Amino acid sequence: MLLEQAAVAAIFALTIGALVFSHWRASSIFSLALLALFACQIITIETALAKSTNSGVITLIALMLASRALERTSLLKQFARNALEKNQTKSLFKLTSLAAIASSFLNNTAVVAALIRPIKNQNKIAASKLLLPLSYAAILGGTTTLIGTSTNMVVNSFWMDLGHPSLDFFAFFPVGVALLVTGLIIIILRKNTLPEHHLQTDSQKYFVDLKVKSDSPMIGKSVSENELRNLNSFFLIEIIRREQSITPVQPDHLIEAGDRLVFSGDVSFIDELQTLPGVKFFAEHTGLMSDNLIEVVLSSSSGLIGKTMKSAGFRAMFDAAVVGLKRNGLQIPGKLGEIQLNEGDNLLLATGSDFKSRKNLDKHFFIISDMAVEQPLSTKVNYSVLAGFTAVMALTISGIMSLLDGLIFFIAGCIAGKVIKSSELKRLFPFELWLIITAALTLAEAMTQTGLSDNLAQFLHSAFSEQSVWFAFVGVLLTTIILTELVTNNAAAALMFPLALSLANSFGVNEISFVMAVAFGASASFLSPYGYQTNLLVFNTGGYKFKDFINYGLPVSICYITVTAILVPYFFPF
């Protein structure tokens, strides 16, 4: 048994270390942890399968799939457009309130993705003055209900796995609403500390426009023969011929006299293009291609993460060429096709005619540009979807129907009403999140079976023996917050739950107060763009830098910790 305890402790420690220090995806790390448990014969496959069908896990997946129907409605974007005014304070108050209320009942990542578009595509207020407050408001709003954030649902899955009934829909509300009100006050009062970047896409920042002369030696040769695909700092992304746009450009495409060649790249290396024979520079871009420019953010669910655009076959997959890439608030120069893609990368795409018809867009991207990829729903259908979801929430809150049953009826109704397709749900199934929770639940079970949880409880109790239980509670809260900033919110919640439970049991106090410390701690991501996906969405889109999160988010984080440390023990006594 001691050998098994040591093995589980090593697997647990290595999982945390890999999440913090490696660049591997969280799902890959948890998968390896699960395989290690199988290899050591500590846990059976039957146990892992039982964890994968935990009622809380299935409810979370159903909620994420149901949110797809809500994402298709245009109501949030309409409300956002109406909220935008020239007065920053009024706009900020209306937008953050809208984001917070919507995030109480909808997936907050989907809420932020929907609201970014109208903010990014208006010229009343710089988007950088609104996007970071929007993300923080969505995070705070998500803490008020059980379904407001996936973090709460992950914690609920662990809670139910212990044999407890599901947490109440409004169990988080007393603390969450206090966090929301105090957080919004700080967000609005500190609005002047936000940077001001006017981020309307300007094609002249990215593109150089050349015209092929009538006597150019390039005429009659293909793009590859003219070595236009082997430039160091530029990439040929469009040919304009007789007022028609050809994009993406294929390697075997022949060059003709009078062709306009549009390159993307780092304009500081313009000398490289001056060496091309038989071309002249255009002083002004006509803007023909700007109609095809679409800005997207790479989703955490994308299979492109860790791959180069060239190796992934990006052009063929999406009928689009990447002409600009922003990461960590900076424009990335050089050969974009050879750069490995990361979650949250902001991509500027020059799209072909088939781009909108590709079925895999929503799995890979959050589309920021104000364009209709899908046929918009009618006003009647918009309100019908909203009414259906509201009915599910009402039935759940009143206790007439379980949340899972209500969501299944809602999804079935949306499929029957052709709001969403079953093929969409299959494509958007959150496999990675499901795998993370399954592996984490199995690891927690291994800790219990081997007795590691009991030994860990004794060790933690001795560490806090000279302190009160409140200090132990705050220790769990702060550790979860730090882990959230270093990894992700769901991974932090999954790892900290068994530790928090062991510590609560060592003191012989009510477990729920420590469980709430994990839930609220895992949602407290205000200092880093990588701890929470809403922060990642606005990071490059708003042109922010890391220091902007520290400067603007630190007071919010301090307030959040203080309110949580005081109110959780009050509403959930030890």
Structural class: alpha+beta
CATH level 1 class label of the domain at 202-368: Alpha Beta
Number of strands: 10
Q: Which stretches are poorly predicted, pLDDT < 50 over at least 5 residues?
A: 200-204, 283-289
Q: Which bin fits the share of residues in helices?
A: 40-55%
The shape is globular
Rg computed from alpha carbons, rounded to a whole number of angstroms = 26 Å
Distance between the termini: 32 Å
Quaternary status of these chains?
single chain
- Biggest sheet: strands side by side, in what order? 3-2-4-1-5
Would you spell out the secondary-structure blueprint of this structure?
Elements: H1 2-21, H2 26-39, H3 45-52, H4 55-72, H5 75-83, H6 88-103, H7 108-120, H8 131-142, H9 150-161, H10 173-189, H11 203-206, E1 207-212, E2 234-241, E3 244-246, E4 260-265, H12 271-274, E5 279-281, E6 293-298, H13 309-312, H14 314-318, E7 320-327, E8 330-331, E9 346-351, H15 361-364, E10 365-367, H16 379-398, H17 403-416, H18 422-427, H19 431-449, H20 452-463, H21 469-486, H22 489-507, H23 511-521, H24 533-541, H25 546-571
Antiparallel strand pairs: 1-4, 1-5, 2-3, 2-4, 6-9, 6-10, 7-8, 7-9
Helix pairs in contact: 1-2, 2-19, 3-19, 4-9, 4-17, 5-6, 5-7, 6-7, 6-8, 7-8, 7-24, 8-10, 8-24, 9-22, 9-23, 10-25, 16-17, 19-22, 20-22, 21-22, 21-23, 22-23, 23-25
